[in-house]
Design a protein that fits this description.
The protein is an alpha+beta fold. The chain is built from 3 helices and 11 strands, in the order H-E-E-E-E-H-E-E-E-E-E-H-E-E. It is 26% helix and 38% strand. The strands form 3 sheets. Strands 2-1-11-10 form a 4-stranded mixed sheet, covered by helices on one side.
Length: 133
């Protein structure tokens, strides 16, 4: 195979890989509206993992970082749920990720995972920061 054919083949395979990744992208909705996340959720051991900070803020919470203990405090009001990095959370490309289930439990939300559509639906029964005026 000559150099030109190899280059074309490599480009074609790279295009297929990018298309496959785009097709696998997990979408997130919050109270029926699309949530635009800077860091895309991932599947880990068959479970959806989401970016901790972005989901915490979107659901009206705040995040406490306790660096010496590698703990993240996912807080809603005065109630904080600790997530231990390496056990409850992982860092992917500089972003802490945790299971969607742990996040919704900590932030008093509900979730439904549509595996076929790769859609994570989150909902809360309270006003969100984006809805307050």
């Amino acid at each position: 195979m000559d150099k030109t054919m190899r280059t074309i083949l490599v480009a074609f395979l790279a295009t297929l890989a990018v298309a496959a990744l785009a097709a696998d992208k997990i979408r997130v909705e919050l109270n029926g509206k699309s949530l635009d996340l800077k860091t895309a959720p991932i599947l880990r051991d068959g479970e959806v993992w989401v970016p901790v900070k972005e989901i915490t803020v979107a659901l009206g919470g705040h995040l406490q970082i306790i660096k010496p203990n590698k703990l993240l405090g996912v807080c809603l009001g005065d109630k904080c749920t600790p997530l231990k990095v390496g056990r409850d959370a992982v860092v992917v490309k500089g972003t802490a990720m945790a299971s969607a289930k742990k996040m919704v439990d900590a932030l008093e939300a509900k979730m439904k995972w549509d595996k076929r559509k790769k859609l994570l639906r989150l909902s809360v029964d309270r006003p969100l920061p984006s809805e307050k005026h």
